[in-house]
Amino acid sequence: MGDVVGGPVALSVREARAQLCQILRDYRDRPDEAEPVYIGTHRHHEAVLISAELFHELAKWAARGRSMAWYFEEHQEAGFGLRER
């Protein structure tokens, strides 16, 4: 998959592990503001950590046959960002 041009930098596994408690706290305390966290070796996007709330919302979109790319494009305009953590 690789990096997204102009997109967020992936956390290393070590950084993600060190920040995991804070990431989970953000997902719990600020679900509307907490953003996806990219994780990977050598800063390449290999995995994305998202809140359970966002996962369930995306699952509903997928069940309806909607494109995930469309979801993210639509929500990026509304402030759903994919910024660096």
Describe the structure.
Strand 1 and strand 2 (47-49) form a beta hairpin. With 85 residues, this protein is mainly alpha-helical. Residues 81-85 have low confidence and may be disordered. The longest helix has 17 residues, at 13-29. It is globular. Helices cover 46% and strands 7% of the residues. Strands 1-2 form a two-stranded antiparallel sheet. It has one domain. The chain starts with 12 loop residues before the first helix and ends in an 8-residue tail after the last helix. The chain has helices at residues 13-29, 52-63, 68-77, and strands at 37-39, 47-49. It has three helices and two strands.
Classify the beta-strand content into a percent band.
5-15%
Overall mean pLDDT: 78
Main-sheet strand order equals: 1-2
* Euclidean distance between termini CA atoms: 20 Å
Order of helices and strands: HEEHH
Largest sheet: 2 strands, antiparallel
Which range best describes the helical content: under 10%, 10-25%, 25-40%, 40-55%, 55-70% or over 70%?
40-55%
Query: Which residues sit in consecutive blocks of at least 5 with pLDDT less than 50?
Result: 81-85
The secondary structure category is mainly alpha
Overall number of strands: 2
Number of domains: 1
Count of helical regions: 3
Return Rg in Å: 13 Å
General shape: globular
